[in-house]
TrEMBL record:
Descriptive protein name: D-aminoacyl-tRNA deacylase
Catalytic activity entry: glycyl-tRNA(Ala) + H2O = tRNA(Ala) + glycine + H(+); a D-aminoacyl-tRNA + H2O = a tRNA + a D-alpha-amino acid + H(+)
Domains (record comment): A Gly-cisPro motif from one monomer fits into the active site of the other monomer to allow specific chiral rejection of L-amino acids.
Location relative to the cell: Cytoplasm
This protein's UniProt keywords: Cytoplasm, Hydrolase, RNA-binding, tRNA-binding
Taxonomic source organism: Citroniella saccharovorans
SUPFAM superfamilies: DTD-like
């Protein structure tokens, strides 16, 4: 499982010209689910993201988390995070999980963040979305649950 996290001052998702979700200060998370992801991958990402210290403290040091500051998260499904571009010019998405399994994992991810008391908004899974954001920093971090040695 892979998450691209952006610290934002604001973010929103529109479908068919209508804003369906928006947050103020917090994090925009693009979530990709790959074939073979397990409960442990989900556990890892939820724990890591909820405790990720990417927000400034009183000394302007990134030392505070979403939980510390009671900030918001906007989660957007993003199967293209598993694009394979090694051959040719057309990305392959064979590593991306099938729609139903990916949807279930996406919804469980959101549920678990909410269970921690985090205010979570969401995109429209599988829809053609327009995502707007004001990146704060900019701070952009990629977290992958797969162990790479």
């Amino acid at each position: 499982m892979r998450a691209l996290i952006q610290r934002v001052l604001s973010a929103s998702v529109s479908v068919d010209g209508e804003i369906i979700s928006e947050i103020s200060k917090g994090a925009l998370i693009f979530l990709g689910v790959k074939v073979g992801d397990k409960k442990e991958d989900l556990d890892y990402l939820v724990k890591k993201i909820s405790g990720l210290r990417i927000f400034d403290d009183e000394n302007s040091v990134m030392n505070l988390s979403i939980l510390d500051l009671d900030l918001e998260i906007l989660v957007v499904s993003q199967f293209t995070l598993y694009a394979d571009t090694r051959k040719g010019n057309r990305p392959s998405y064979v590593r991306s999980e099938k729609r139903e399994n990916a949807y279930n994992t996406y919804m469980e991810f959101i549920k678990r963040l909410r269970d921690l008391g985090i205010k979570v908004s969401e995109g429209s899974f599988g829809a053609d979305m327009k995502v707007s954001l004001v990146n704060d920093g900019p701070v952009t971090i990629i977290i992958d649950s797969e162990k790479i040695y």
